[in-house]
Amino acid sequence: MSTNVTVTGAAGQIGYALLFRIASGQLLGPDTKVRLKLLEIPQAVKAAEGTALELFDSAFELLEDIDIYDDPTKAFEGTNIALLVGARPRTKGMERADLLEANGGIFKPQGEAIAAGAANDIKVLVVGNPANTNALIAQSNADGVPAARFTAMTRLDHNRAIAQLAQKTGAAVSDITNMAIWGNHSPSMYPDLFNAKVKGERAWDAVGDENWVANEYIPRVGKRGAEIIEARGASSAASAASAAVDHVYDWVNGTAEGDWVSMAVPSDGSYDVPEGIITSFPVTTSGGEWKIVQGLDVPEFSRERINNTVNELQEERAAVAKLGLV
Ligand code: NDP
């Protein structure tokens, strides 16, 4: 038995880092064989074929086969895990409505193709930006597929939030648990130190510096993507791929006892977040299903910031509704 994994935008930067991690067994574990189905736009199919040659040359024991498509219907046929990485980037002078419309042209047909032919246990992770709203478009156009199967990636924000907190407190990354990102995968996302723990102590207390949290930590995590572009001359790719692997691995294999991860999932109204938008919450996973962690402390400091990032998502939802995409 092997698992079919579809990756869109396979010839892109993230795709290049991601595909080797998947083929080596890091996405699904060392006992699961993988069949890769790569989707690209026609102009990029040749480059995807080049990546496929390199995957072949790596002689990965778990990699059974690679197929490359420019047609979403074929790319999602029988697929169990879909990583939607390819998206239309914002170009100079582009308004947000144009960006959302261009991405609607990608994610609506992909949602329809998933509904038409994916396997019954399909799990979807959207990485391509604006990821939360792209996920909402795909989900809204995938009749018959449970909404819960559509998620968007805030795991890179989560990992960045852990790394920055570890550096500040001098703790090891493994000493930090219960990190939660709330909201949109955008600079408005909110990393929550009231519920995160450093060696079991509330992170807010371990840091003991509200000014640092409000004025350095939160903006730094939120704008880390821009900092990487500035330093590297290109956007983050390997860290985004690594976060995508973490997201799917934990979704499939379950979270550690007492801990949780951040995933953008369709809101059920928990914490007064409007139902239906795809927004990041702390979640636990078990048996391939996620559950929003309930009963967490949301003081005023958090509430303001959660409202702000959620409002941004509501505006995006209203914009794509106006375009008839959801
Ligand atoms: P990347 O592989 O670098 O990025 C792909 C997407 O991931 C972008 O939307 C990017 O957003 C997003 N992303 C999400 N989180 C992050 C993060 N933390 N850091 C960086 N990126 C993040 O883009 P490339 O341009 O190299 O490649 C895109 C590929 O997708 C191309 O090969 C193109 O042909 C393909 N494509 C395929 C489609 C399809 O299969 N139907 C449709 C459209 C494109 P952001 O732009 O905001 O950085």
Question: Summarize this, please?
Answer:
With 326 residues, this protein is an alpha/beta fold.
Any chance you could write out the topology, listing elements then pairs?
Blueprint: E1 2-8, H1 13-23, E2 33-39, H2 45-57, E3 63-69, H3 72-75, E4 81-84, H4 96-117, E5 123-126, H5 131-140, E6 150-152, H6 155-169, E7 176-177, E8 181-182, E9 190-191, E10 197-198, E11 201-202, H7 203-207, H8 210-222, H9 224-232, H10 238-253, E12 261-266, E13 278-286, E14 289-292, H11 300-322
Parallel strand pairs: 1-2, 1-4, 2-3, 4-5, 5-6
Antiparallel strand pairs: 7-10, 8-9, 10-11, 12-13, 13-14
Helix pairs in contact: 1-10, 4-5, 5-11, 6-8
Domain Lactate/malate dehydrogenase N-terminal: 4-143
Family: Belongs to the LDH/MDH superfamily. MDH type 2 family.
Protein name: Malate dehydrogenase
Architecture overview:
- It catalyses: (S)-malate + NAD(+) = oxaloacetate + NADH + H(+).
- Its EC number is 1.1.1.37.
- The protein is of the alpha/beta class.
- The protein folds into two domains: 151 residues, NAD(P)-binding Rossmann-like Domain (Rossmann fold); 162 residues, Alpha-Beta Complex (L-2-Hydroxyisocaproate Dehydrogenase, Chain A, domain 2), CATH 3.90.110.
- Helices cover 43% and strands 19% of the residues.
- The chain is built from eleven helices and 14 strands.
- Strands 3-2-1-4-5-6 form a six-stranded parallel sheet, with helices on both faces. Strands 7-10-11 form a three-stranded antiparallel sheet.
- Strand 1, helix 1 and strand 2 form a beta-alpha-beta unit.
- Helix 1 crosses helix 10 and helix 6 packs across helix 8.
- The chain is globular, with a radius of gyration of 19 Å.
